[in-house]
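Data follows
____________
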Amino acid sequence: MPAVAAREHERGAGENGGKTREGQRGSPSEGSRVILPCLEEGHVSERRTIEPVQPIYADRASGQTFPDARAMVNAYLARFGERAGTKLEPLDASGYTLVNKGSASIGINVLEDHGVLLFVAPVMTVPIAGHESFYRRLLELSFLTTSDAAFAIDAQRDEVVVRSLRRLSGLDYEEFEDLLDTVGKVADEWDDTLRGEFGR
């Protein structure tokens, strides 16, 4: 009898163990049933249609408004020319014109597709040798010396330029004049100096 009782005890223990394992297996399943509804009921970001912001073409100081970016820049060019005592050519069909200041020639580009105004003034051709020291010099100058402008490389022409970008929307005349003056001043001041230091 003791042997039979022992076997019955082992059988019972085995059955209890199976229940425990089933309970353990059941526990994650119950957890999943708790978690999944949370995921299903969670807040999903709704797709919203964002209406494009209309650009502002106006000079805050004078209150003058313009129908488009080119009309605004042409008006600013005429105003700049009056102050400088010279006549400036308006933008051509591509949105480009050239302004001379000292020894600098500043290209003004209205890039309406990108919504920006780009000023570019050529400085010199990239030197054949000594690129590392040359580029370091340009970066150091662009840190503070060039103000709102910066030196850059026009890869297509292998040319060093001074350039400045500004969003067209909300552009005031004073900002336009300041950027044009800055680019012209930096190019006029550093073209001879950089050519003297690095040749070519």
